[in-house]
Amino acid sequence: MIYSWELKYLNGYLSFKIGATYHKSQILDDDGQWSEGLISAAKMVAAATHSLCESANAMVQGHATEERLIASAKEVAGSTAHLLVACRVKADPDSVAMKRLQAAGNAVKRATEVLVKAAQQAKQRDEDEDINVAVDSRKVGGIKQELQIQEEMLRKEREWIEAREKLAKFRKQRYKDTGHDSDSSSAF
């Protein structure tokens, strides 16, 4: 049960922080669901940021790949965007706090883009150094070598497709578990 002093405090806090003001009936009806969404979005940002830190640490120690770091950075950007959308629902778009929040969100987006670009460049450098193929000069040996390379390529393509389908199923199930009915398996 929400007491009147809590409503006054909440209304004053929200008015001060994000320029949003509410009437008592609005707070009782809408604010619970909005607050849950806001808290959920903030938790997703925290979890994504934690994952990014773990990925970066593991990559520095040689235990993770650039792909994991890139996926973590994209998750931070995506969850931050969701948090901003949740804040915009009830915030005054012209308030100083909302403008600062938007600027912070843009800074997160730029930082993750820079991180992804740097990781991709490092990955490309590593791949360029690793791709030294010694071609067998005999005709039969060369054909065999080409078939092995094609086999490896097809195997990795299949693994990529399976991983993409697994991610789509995971996102769909997570979305259903949160009580929504639509498909949210879009990728970055």
From TrEMBL:
<keyword id="KW-0963">Cytoplasm</keyword>
<dbReference type="InterPro" id="IPR035964">
    <property type="entry name" value="I/LWEQ_dom_sf"/>
</dbReference>
<dbReference type="GO" id="GO:0005886">
    <property type="term" value="C:plasma membrane"/>
</dbReference>
<dbReference type="GO" id="GO:0005737">
    <property type="term" value="C:cytoplasm"/>
</dbReference>
<dbReference type="GO" id="GO:0003779">
    <property type="term" value="F:actin binding"/>
</dbReference>
<dbReference type="InterPro" id="IPR002558">
    <property type="entry name" value="ILWEQ_dom"/>
</dbReference>
<dbReference type="GO" id="GO:0098609">
    <property type="term" value="P:cell-cell adhesion"/>
</dbReference>
<protein>
    <recommendedName>
        <fullName>I/LWEQ domain-containing protein</fullName>
    </recommendedName>
</protein>
<dbReference type="Pfam" id="PF01608">
    <property type="entry name" value="I_LWEQ"/>
</dbReference>
<dbReference type="GO" id="GO:0005178">
    <property type="term" value="F:integrin binding"/>
</dbReference>
<dbReference type="GO" id="GO:0005925">
    <property type="term" value="C:focal adhesion"/>
</dbReference>
<feature type="domain" description="I/LWEQ">
    <location>
        <begin position="1"/>
        <end position="178"/>
    </location>
</feature>
<dbReference type="GO" id="GO:0030036">
    <property type="term" value="P:actin cytoskeleton organization"/>
</dbReference>
